[in-house]
């Protein structure tokens, strides 16, 4: 996916940023657990999927869409596990350390899942 154009990157940046902003506003208005549902809106995935058509067409577009979606599945599994672990960690080590733990946990889990997928 390194063969994407500058316009595709710009569209992804704008679309993803707007979606994250909207999800944040909605989450702040709804508060609590209901707001958390909107905070997990898959903006980056949707932006990437939509903009694939800028750089690819035909069978190559289908192949790249499948490839992107497979990576998204790995990422979301890592996300689900890390959110569960983070909820526990924040209670025990506090908000700041819990936030750092969350990012590190998601990254490590996603790499492990990716490695297991390719074994």
Automatic annotation (TrEMBL):
Coiled coil, from the record: none
Pfam families in the cross-refs: DUF3147
Transmembrane segments: 6-27, 34-54, 66-90, 99-116
Superkingdom, taxonomy of origin: Bacteria
Alphabetized UniProt keyword annotations: Membrane, Transmembrane, Transmembrane helix
InterPro entries assigned: DUF3147
Name by which UniProt lists this protein: Permease
């Amino acid at each position: 996916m390194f063969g994407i154009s500058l316009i595709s990157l710009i569209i992804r940046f704008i679309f993803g940023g707007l979606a994250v902003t909207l999800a944040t506003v909605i989450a702040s208005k709804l508060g609590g657990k209901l707001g958390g549902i909107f905070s997990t809106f898959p903006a980056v995935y949707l932006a990437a999927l939509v903009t694939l058509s800028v750089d690819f067409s035909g069978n190559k577009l289908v192949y790249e869409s499948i490839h992107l979606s497979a990576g998204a599945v790995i990422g979301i599994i890592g996300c689900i596990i890390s959110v569960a672990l983070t909820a526990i960690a924040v209670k025990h080590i506090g908000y700041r350390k819990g936030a750092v733990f969350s990012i590190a946990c998601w990254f490590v889990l996603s790499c492990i899942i990716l490695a297991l997928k390719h074994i």
